[in-house]
Prior knowledge:
- It contains four helices and no strands.
- It is mainly α.
Amino acid sequence: MDVDEYRKYRDEIDDNRFGGTGFILAIVGFFGIASIICGILAIVFGAVQIKKESNPIAKASIALGIADIVLRLITFAVIALILIKKFS
């Protein structure tokens, strides 16, 4: 591999790094405690990637980031309702 091929390959990897990072954060958010933070970061990284160059991974990171936030808020609401009902 010569220098020009390496630079082209390196630039392709650098161009897609934000979408992949957002996707990984969205997956981690489903299983982690900090899912709202991971969801927000996944949305931000996906949006940055789409602004550079749209790809399916970036769109998936945005969708999964939104799902992270919504599911965690629903979970918190259900737990709060259960606790309110139990202690009132």
